Amino acid sequence: MLIPTTNSLAPGGLALDEGSACHAPVDLLRSVGCHGLLRPGLGYIVAVGPLIALAVLLSGCGAGVAPVVATQARAARVPLVRLGAGVRGVQVLVEPDDGAGALTGAIRDAGRSIWLTMYMLTNRTIIHDLEYAHAAGVDVRVILEPHPYGASDNTNQSAYDILMAADIPVHWSSPRYRLTHEKSMVVDGDTAYVMTTNFTRASFQANREFDVVDRHPADVATVRALFIADWTNRVYTTRDGNLPLSPSDARPLLQALIGSARRTLDVYGEELQDPGMEKALAAAARHGVHVRLILPAPSGPDYDARGVRLVTAASVRVRRLPRSYLYIHAKVIVADGRRAFVGSQNLSAASLDDNRELGIIVADQRVIGTLEDTFNGDWSYRGG
Known about the structure:
By secondary structure, this protein is of the alpha/beta class. It has 3 domains: 1-81, no CATH class; 96-231, Endonuclease Chain A (Endonuclease, Chain A), CATH 3.30.870; 245-379, Endonuclease Chain A (Endonuclease, Chain A, 2-Layer Sandwich). The protein contains 11 helices and 20 strands. α3 (124-135) links the parallel β5 (113-118) and β6 (139-144).
C-alpha cells in the first residue's frame, strides 16, 4: 500500500526536513535507495508493505529522474515523523574532558528515580552509586545488553550480579534487537541524558564522547516512554523528529540531516560501514558541501576501508586518529554549524536497522559551538 502524506518516511528512506520543500539533491535520492520519494503536492510517498515496487517521477526538487523502484524489506509500519528543528536549552558533556563527575553527581543527587539503559556497565564507582541511591529509597531500574559485541564473555554480568544482590531491578535487554546499544538515563523523571558514553572506565579517561543533558518535558517523556516499553519488552516507535530511534527512524532522520547541509558537515563516527550513509556523505560533498569525517585508526582488520575509499573519492576529508591520542567513540553529525545529531548510532547497517539505539537532534548554539570547537581541536591533531 502506498500512502500519500506530507511528512512520512520508511526505514532506509529519506525524511523531509522541517521548513524545507526539498533538501535532498537528486543524486542523493538516487544514492540512498529512496524508499520515501517526493512528489509535488503529496510530500513523501512511503512503501509500508514487505516487498512493494514503487515507480514514480521525481520532480519536486526541480529536476526529473527516471522511475525508481523502492523495496521495503520490513513489514512494520513506521510513524509519520519529520526531522526536527533541533532542541535548544540543553547542555553537553565532553569526555574525557569533563570526567565522570557530572554523571555520577546526577546519580548521587537523584531523589526519586534513576532509569538507566546501558550497553556496557563496568565502572565500579557508578555501580556503587546506583547501589547507594537504591538504599536511599530511589527507584533504580537498569536495562543491560547481555552480549556486548566483541566481548569474550558477558562484560555486564558482574554489574548485573552486584545490582541484583542489592535488590535493584535489572533486566537483560530485549532479544527483539540484535543489540541494545543505547546509552540513556532518566533522573527523577525530569532530566534525560542521551549519550555516546558507555559507563566504563575507558569512556571517561581515554575516549572522545559526548552526552546531551535535556530537561524539556516532552523529550524526557519520550525517553521515559521508550524505557517503559523496553523494560516491559513491548514494541515502541518514537514520533519525535528530535530523537532518532533505531531501528525505526534513525536512518531516514540522519540522512535528512546530512541532506540538509548546504555548506559544511562535520562528522564523528566510530564506524563507517553502511553504503547508504557513505553515499549520502559522498553526495553532499559532490554538491559542494565541505565534509570532514573523524574516525578511529584501525587497530586490526580495517572494516572501514571500503567506506573511506568511497567517501574520499567524492572529496570527503577523513582523519583517522590513533588510540594514543583518544579512541574516537563519539557519534556526531553537525550540519552547517546550526543543527547537530549526538547519539549512540554508528554509521553502520546493524546500528541503524537492527539495534536499539537513541540519539538527539540539537540546535542549541552553545552546544553546537562546543561540538565544533572539540571537533576542530581533534581535527588539528597531527601526532603519530
